[in-house]
């Protein structure tokens, strides 16, 4: 957890961070990103309806083995419903797979469905319990029918992609982007047809048209109906998260990186699917677990912020837990405020601007444990964890993290979440976003009181690069249960406090 902050730099590194604030995200003006067509629906994978129909109808032939069983229509309905509920679902953002890829999951789920059906029949009609031969025959018939149907759907989808590939732009260093585009053109089965290269260094390139201005990109999107954007990384960057503003070439100047991020955001908002493609991963290196491949290049879909993980379930957990804790801890909060008033004088609450989801600022609340000389010091100095002039009770609040409890009100209001990347001040967010690839992408989810980085010891004066990597890993692999686990580990860590 961060503090009110006053030490020169994180992780003991001496760094000149400048003195003037910089915008967290590139400005949405005519110079930052081109005017691109809007209102187009976002591209989606193939409709799930064909596979849904196939999975449902595949259960019907299997019911032939149930001839003579009591309530056969009811059993057929149960079998179809269970098959649909347990059908294999594609991972969000993945490109089309084949029937063989689905085979293990499909057969495993069909086996479970039939075992459940056999248990129900044995429980409610013991005299008509399914024999082992009947069970095996039903599983085989159901599996063969389901696999054949899925194979037909996948074959039809691949044929459609080959005959009508989706127009794409390749964004990245000129030489690497041309190499990737040439590979895609040699493999039309991937369903992507590059129509242009977007780069700021067009010199020495040959092949596809090179687009170096916003107007050229807009014209290419309109004339070719571009629906895919492939962002090429020339080196292995496993910590880069899926976001509409992915990491760009770290060798570029900060202003160029900001322009490229603004362009990618504009392309995503215009309805294009943005994919991060790693052209520098060695052949023996594993693909990212949440990723896929296009023409054998590791890639992953960069989801717009509106479709980021979390949503209603996370918000319900936040409101329920924060509201309950505020109610239960109100006597403790009042006691801390009273003691702090006596020890430290007036001004118990500490308010500070922090950056939340999407780069939006909000006012964070804490108990005041330090009094900066002025607002500039509060906004631009790093840590006060080692300040010995702090009153004893303030040091106690910081060591036990009790000064952070008021952020439960921020969670209840919706400014923050219980679990998420720790929020930082705009001054540091701007600087860290320029210095550390992937740092700005932490703002894809609401900021949190605790997070994966904090339970792994990344608190206070620790590596910013490591924090960004852990925060992005949390967002990439988010689940509601993982939030619960992080909260439990945070509660356990409070018994051995080390300060914030």
From TrEMBL:
<feature type="domain" description="Bacterial sugar transferase">
    <location>
        <begin position="314"/>
        <end position="495"/>
    </location>
</feature>
<feature type="transmembrane region" description="Helical">
    <location>
        <begin position="106"/>
        <end position="125"/>
    </location>
</feature>
<dbReference type="InterPro" id="IPR017475">
    <property type="entry name" value="EPS_sugar_tfrase"/>
</dbReference>
<feature type="region of interest" description="Disordered">
    <location>
        <begin position="1"/>
        <end position="50"/>
    </location>
</feature>
<feature type="transmembrane region" description="Helical">
    <location>
        <begin position="69"/>
        <end position="86"/>
    </location>
</feature>
<dbReference type="Pfam" id="PF02397">
    <property type="entry name" value="Bac_transf"/>
</dbReference>
<comment type="similarity">
    <text>Belongs to the bacterial sugar transferase family.</text>
</comment>
<feature type="transmembrane region" description="Helical">
    <location>
        <begin position="316"/>
        <end position="340"/>
    </location>
</feature>
<feature type="compositionally biased region" description="Polar residues">
    <location>
        <begin position="1"/>
        <end position="12"/>
    </location>
</feature>
<dbReference type="InterPro" id="IPR003362">
    <property type="entry name" value="Bact_transf"/>
</dbReference>
<keyword id="KW-0808">Transferase</keyword>
<keyword id="KW-1133">Transmembrane helix</keyword>
<protein>
    <submittedName>
        <fullName>Exopolysaccharide biosynthesis polyprenyl glycosylphosphotransferase</fullName>
    </submittedName>
</protein>
<feature type="transmembrane region" description="Helical">
    <location>
        <begin position="131"/>
        <end position="153"/>
    </location>
</feature>
<keyword id="KW-0472">Membrane</keyword>
<keyword id="KW-0812">Transmembrane</keyword>
């Amino acid at each position: 957890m961060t503090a009110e902050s006053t030490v020169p730099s994180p992780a003991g590194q001496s760094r000149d961070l400048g003195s003037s604030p910089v915008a967290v995200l590139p400005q949405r003006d005519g110079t930052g990103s081109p005017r691109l067509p809007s209102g187009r629906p976002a591209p989606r994978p193939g409709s799930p309806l064909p596979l849904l129909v196939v999975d449902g109808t595949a259960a019907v032939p299997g019911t032939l083995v149930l001839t003579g069983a009591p309530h056969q229509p009811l059993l057929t309905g149960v079998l179809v419903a269970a098959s649909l509920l347990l059908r294999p679902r594609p991972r969000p953002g993945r490109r089309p797979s084949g029937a063989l890829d689905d085979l293990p999951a499909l057969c495993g789920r069909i086996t479970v469905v039939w075992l459940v059906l056999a248990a129900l029949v044995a429980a409610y009609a013991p005299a008509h319990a399914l024999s082992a031969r009947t069970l095996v025959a039903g599983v085989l018939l159901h599996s063969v029918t389901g696999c054949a149907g899925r194979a037909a759907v996948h074959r039809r989808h691949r044929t459609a992609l080959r005959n009508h590939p989706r127009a794409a732009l390749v964004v990245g260093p000129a030489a690497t982007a041309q190499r990737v585009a040439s590979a895609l053109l040699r493999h039309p089965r991937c369903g992507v047809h590059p129509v242009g290269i977007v780069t700021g260094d067009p010199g020495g390139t040959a092949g596809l048209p090179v687009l170096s201005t916003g107007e050229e990109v807009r014209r290419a999107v309109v004339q070719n109906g571009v629906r895919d954007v492939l962002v090429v990384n020339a080196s292995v960057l496993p910590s880069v998260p899926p976001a509409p503003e992915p990491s760009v070439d770290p060798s570029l100047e900060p202003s160029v990186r900001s322009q490229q991020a603004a362009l990618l955001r504009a392309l995503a908002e215009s309805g294009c699917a943005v994919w991060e493609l790693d052209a520098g991963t060695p052949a023996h290196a594993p693909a990212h677990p949440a990723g896929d491949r296009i023409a054998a290049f590791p890639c992953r879909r960069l989801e717009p912020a509106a479709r980021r993980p979390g949503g209603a379930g996370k918000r319900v957990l936040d409101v329920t837990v924060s509201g309950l804790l505020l109610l239960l801890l109100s006597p403790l909060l009042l006691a801390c405020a009273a003691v702090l008033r006596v020890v430290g004088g007036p001004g118990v609450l500490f308010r500070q601007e922090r950056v939340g989801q999407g780069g939006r600022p909000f006012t964070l609340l804490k108990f005041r444990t330090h009094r900066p000389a002025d607002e500039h010091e509060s906004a631009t100095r790093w840590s006060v964890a080692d300040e010995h002039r702090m009153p004893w009770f303030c040091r106690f609040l910081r060591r036990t993290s009790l000064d952070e409890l008021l952020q439960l009100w921020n969670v209840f209001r919706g400014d923050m979440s219980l679990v998420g990347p720790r929020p930082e001040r705009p001054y540091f967010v701007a600087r860290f976003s320029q210095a550390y690839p992937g740092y700005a992408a932490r703002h894809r989810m609401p900021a949190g009181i605790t997070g994966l980085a904090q339970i792994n010891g990344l608190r206070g004066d620790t590596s910013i690069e490591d924090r960004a990597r852990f925060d992005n890993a949390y967002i990439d692999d988010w689940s509601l249960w993982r939030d619960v686990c992080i909260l439990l580990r945070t509660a356990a860590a409070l018994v051995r406090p080390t300060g914030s």
